[in-house]
Amino acid sequence: MLSLGFVTLDEQQDHTYCTEVAKCARRYGISVCRFSPLGIDPQTENVRGFLFQEETNEWTNAVFAIPPFLYDRCFYGNDERSKKAKPIMNWLKQRPDLTFLGYGLPGKWDVYEALSSHPLLSAYVPPTVRLERADDVLALLRREQAAIAKPVHGSGGRGICIFQKKGKALSVQDSHGQEQAVIARRSELEQLLASWSRRGEYVLQPLLQLSTPEGEPFDLRILLQKDENGRWVERVRAVRVGRPGAWVANVRAGADIRPFSEWLDRLSSSKRLFVLDGVETIIRTLPVYMDHTFGPLFEIGLDLGATDNGAVWILDVNSKPGRKVAHLLPPEQQNELYEAPLRYCLFLARGGKANDLHVDH
């Protein structure tokens, strides 16, 4: 029987998702376990983790060998556990006897650089610079009303900050629209950025005007995965709508998830054509390009913005996406999401290589 291991830093993370996948696994001849990279014994290379028991549909504590197929769902912060876990995961990904469903993407800066060099995709990438000094912010704000700073290794909207002109000063706000500071001097801005740099690198972009007529921030989320033949398929597309006054539509911060078709129907016919053309071009091109550029992936959460003039922008590309948008799907299509890692695992076990001819809808 094949063995597939979910790797997470936190024992409870993705617990429901892991369980639903594990319930489907028996039909595919796959046993499922889950563990933290910190649960690997460096002497024996055995793992202390949890095995799924098909008879009871429950997880039990167990010690087992590292499974040959691994599903990386680790999210890292600046804490000690993350610092210890990251090199262990890198070691696992170097091992020729182990196969990951997906090998992940690097930080936002590397992804933006790759997208910016692509002949088609570059048109959908907002102008992006590394945020290193006060001049980066000031130069951008000479041309734009506001700028957004994003952590290179951030996810889920954490760590995002907005710089906005406020008379002769700068207002610094968090992603919820709460003002964190008012900066009147360059030296204060330098101090702020120096404190950020201790937490990691940031990128800086113009703040795109992405809000509904009601003043709610929104973005488009598209979930893509590989199927049992190694082809990219689109699973769901949705609109995430945040609270009025916030800057980003993050589900963790209470954003609503709404059907893409409902949002699209509210657009004028000409704007609808522009938006669909941009979305389809990105979906058709980006997953294949990410595979070629950064190594094989299994899934992508694609965050797109659409401005009032119908322009579509790539906001983020996430190789470890959440699945809250899947709640819009009928039950049978939700089951496809649970079976997708198992089907792709079988494809890899047969020696399959990603077939990147096209993306199916």
From TrEMBL:
Pfam family, one: ATPgrasp_YheCD
Protein name: YheC/YheD family protein
The species this protein was found in: Geobacillus thermopakistaniensis (strain MAS1)
